[in-house]
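Input.
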Amino acid sequence: MSKKALTAMLAAVAAAATLGYEGGKFSPISPTQAQTAPVQSAAAPQARALPDFTALVEQNGPAVVNISTTAKVRTSAQEQIPGEPGDPFYEFFRRFQIPAPQGDQLRRGVGSGFIVSADGYILTNAHVIDDAAEVTVKLTDNREFTAKVIGADKRTDVALVKIDAKNLPVVRIGEAAKSRVGEWVAAIGSPFGLENTVTAGIISAKSRSLPDENYVPFIQTDVAINPGNSGGPLFNMAGEVIGINSQIYSRTGGYMGLSFAVPIEVAMKVKNDLQKYGKVSRGRLGVTIQGVTQELADSFGLKKPKGALVAAVEPKSPAEKAGIKTGDIILAVDGRDIENSIELPRVIGESRPGTQVKLKVWRQGETKDLTASLGEMPAEKVARADTGGSKSQSGKLGVAVRPLTDEERKQLEAEGGLMVEQAEGAAARAGVQAGDVILALNNQPVKSVDQLRRLVDKSRGSVALLIQREGNKIYVPVRLG
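Output.
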């Protein structure tokens, strides 16, 4: 091959190296592109830009306020002495302690809030203004006002305060019910007193129930919330408030990735009641309830575990007057399904006293429709059965029982029942313990040891024991051995 031909061939190869195949033909691509262009599938989704919160903050920041409180705490010299009376160290410090101020001491707190009306109504947490002798609200323009507490509802941790001002910036109220897990949200507040601090994250879960709380289906987020954020708003990307930042889960006192907000629908209902009536009134049914497990559902003939199981009915209560009985499972209220027992207090509590509600209950294998006129009282009590216990499996039920004495029957106001003296096996694993009184098995009253034995012998799978423990009645599902 001649030198001239070799040169031409190399030039052709070099030119080909700068060509790419696109759309059925070759088109020029720069050498840099040829080296760095990633291989992408035609169906690969395009990357989305991270959310921009600047417009949200500019629009809503002025409606978020800093709340500082002052409370009087009475102290005495004795409270400041370490140890107990009679202890040598106590006597030493009592005689030689350095004089310290006594009487009323001031305790200061800080929190957040947000303006919901231009004439000065502000929502915050009840625990922010709890026991406060003075509440001061500071706006972003540095104006400060002494606020009047309109009212507070500790059950939902929502409070309403009012400042004497007009033409104030206000937030827009959204709908927490329409929010979705995974969507971006932002919080504005005063963590550690650092006013108008913005943090962001996503909704981690919805309708979260927290211990000892029956009325609030919390919004769980991973937004950084710290002391001082309490009472501040949680915004969606449309710039609407969907919650009030209320609690965090922490082992250290600081943020650990779990924060909880009160849904704005709950807060606004409390706000309206406080503004109109000065207090929050809730409906009362008058039942002790517990959750329905799969074992209990099997025992009562339900296809799936749902509803609220009635463990006891208060005498002369709206529930008793409506015909509700122990062992009923409340499945719906006014057409609203009760999927979990924790939902019943919320649904009943949303109705004002005197309201008539239609109840759908499950009783002895079929549904019944009842009507109740609600009273007014604190929340329904929630009965809980402890789990765990011995792993031994002696006997089908695993309890040693005896009839009640006349005195015990009188104290318990029970016609029948059997005292549990020992529990093991299936009963112990279900949480039955010595001292419990078995009142019924699968809603059949138990009056003798022989009767209990016959009922157990005829049963298969799981049974529901109605027991009385320390004055409370609860159903305990027992999976027979």
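The first strand starts at residue 19 and ends at 22.
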